[in-house]
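Entry 14. Ran structure prediction on the chain below.
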Amino acid sequence: MSYLPAGAKDHAVRVEMPEGSTVYDLMDKYQVPREQAHLVVCNGLFVPPSKRDNHSLKDGDSIALWPPVAGG
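Output, C-alpha cells:
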C-alpha cells in the first residue's frame, strides 16, 4: 500500500507542514501507521521511535520512511 500523496514522482513529493510539526505529525497527516515506519531518516540521519514525537521538522528537510521487511 502506498501512503504517498497524489503527485508523487519517483517515490518523492514536496509537502507543506505547519511550523513546529514533528515526524509523527507528518505521518499522521498522510495516515501512515506508526508501526509501518520501521526506519525513519531525516536528512540522512536515523530518527529513533522515541524521538519521532518531538523531532521538529524544518523547511527543506528530507524525510524517508521504510516499512519493516521480512527475510530469510
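The mean pLDDT is 88. Will compare against last week's run tomorrow.
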